[in-house]
Amino acid sequence: MKKENMNGGMVLKSILFIAIVMLPLLFFFLPYREMRDYIVLFVFVIFSSVLFFLSKSLMRREEELLDVKDTLSEDITKKVLVEKTLEEERKLNQIILDYQEQILILSTKKSGMININNKFFTTFDFKDLNDFKEYHQCICELFILKEGYLQKTEGSDWTLTVLNNPNTMHKALMLNKEGEETIFLARVKKVNVGEEEYRITTFTDITELEKAREMAESSERVKANFMANMSHELRTPLNGINGFTQLLSQTSMNEKQRKYISLIETSSKNLLGIVDNILDFSKIESGNMELESKQSNPFTEIENIINLFNARAKSKNITYQLDMDSNISPCLLMDTLRLSQILSNLISNAIKFTPENGKIIVEVKSLSKTNDLEKLYIAVTDNGIGISKERQQVIFKAFTQADTSTTREFGGTGLGLSISVTLVHLFGGTLQLESEENKGSRFFFDIEAKRCDQEEKKQKVLIVEECEMTKIVIEELLKQHEILVEFANDEENFLNKLSTEKYQLLFININMPNIDISKTLPYIRVLSPTLPIVALGDSEEDKNRVETVLTDINEYLDKPIQIELFNELIVKQMQK
Fold first, then answer.
1. Of 2, 66, 211, 405, which is the most exposed, with the fewest CB atoms less than 10 Å away?
2. What are the E-state strand segments in 87-246?
3. Confidence label for 408 from pLDDT (cuts 50, 70 and 90)
4. Which is more confident, 361 or 262?
């Protein structure tokens, strides 16, 4: 197009040069009129041509101007359409943002908050973003300073706390427009668009959930306290009933009285078993059930458990036997109390649901051994009433028995198997069942136990006590755990013993007349930094002193010593 314009311009300039400069000269210098006429004609042609070229050029320029106008018009139309589309998309995006239940905030590091959805304004007392920015630069300025919640530190970016700890639950506490404390779960995501970094922040109202959680925790604490108090309140009279029935059974009675005493003793023991199951179930529900392993001889421990049920099995003429693998290690680290509880539940059920002249076999085998671990297989098999396939699916659930008539006929709470399932799981196994109606049942599971050296079983305890009766009681109780005992009567004597001997536990009377326990404790910790210390006292004041002042002491034990508490303490401390 430009080349054509240049060629046309050259032609037009040439014609004009001839017409304006050359022809007038010829017109004056030519002698003949005819020739002048020709020249006039030629000039006319020339001017016609010039006009033709001029009109054509003007037409072309007009076409070019029209093309430019059309192009500009098309560009403007496209721009208007694009802007209209963008505006519609912005409105749609805002509608989507406003539809969300959470508060959504879009921000950049340079500009701060650039967009907030409508949920923010319905929650807090602000008309729009500009209204908010008149009073605040950051939403963090609305945070209430309280432990456990997000806090605003001057000069820092609070969103970094959330971004750098994505697996933590970040909560913000703020006042809503009604002036009520509202708890929000805060999350922040980082998005890069080109060179700009955007942060998308969400605040989800979890006030009701937090209140429900706090109520549940409070309820759990109340429940735990109630169960602890009930444990004491129920066990105390039951222990009294058991004690006095045993005393009565040793006196002169006729046959009828002896029968009645036997029934009272059996009933009280059953009731104590129910109480124990309920308390254990409460521990399991609260997640406080833990195993406490100790060195033990599995042959002795399991045989003792079996012997507990000899009389009951004999009363029903049940063939009752133990098949125990002789290859089992004689020393294993395990919680014998909980293992006894599992086996007792299974054996008790087997005897309960096996008719007279039936058969029960308790089987214990060694499945595998390593230098450190041994895997045991334990099964209780009977030829009793069995369990239907349908009931086998629910038999391990709490408060469930094989049949609704079972409770009426045989008694029980339906908690035994549920507790046993959890205990077996704590041992690392799974309680399983094979059963057929009217043919019997087999409950079995595997557990893993650490192997131990029998020579390491000799544990030693030092007792610092002046009361001979207390010393005798503690010594006799420790002998039941196969623990060696040594005594000391004064500070010099027991500190010398600590410096020369290794002890697993120290009992010390904090009211010894020749020992200032507050001054002696630092010396004990220098000689034996990790030695568990049990304080012996006889008042509430002694207990408070241990809890508040003598904080280096691990446990407190009241005198006179309660056997059950003492045994629990020994199991807990000697396995650390």
1. 2
2. 103-108, 112-116, 171-175, 181-193, 196-205
3. very low
4. 361
Q: Which residues pair with 1 in a beta bridge?
A: none
H or E element at residue 360: strand 359-369
CA distance 153 to 160: 12
Q: Give the Cα separation of 35 and 30 in Å (integer).
A: 7
- Provide the sign of the torsion angle of the four alpha carbons 80, 81, 87, 91, taken in this order: positive
Retrieve residue 15's tokens. Answer: 């014609």
CA distance 473 to 435: 48
238 contacts 271 by C-beta, under 8 angstroms: yes
pLDDT tens digits, one per residue of 276-303: 666 666 666 666 667 778 888 888 888 8
SS3 22: helix
- What is the 3-state secondary structure of 382-416? ECCCCCCHHHHCCCCCCCCCCCHHHHHHHCCCCCH
Which tens digits make up the pLDDT trace of 304-362? 788 878 888 888 999 999 898 888 888 898 888 788 888 888 998 899 889 999 999 99
C-alpha span between 97 and 159 (Å, rounded): 20
In angstroms, the Cα distances linking 478 to 76, 482, 495 are 99, 6, 22
Q: Is the pTM of this model over 0.85?
A: no
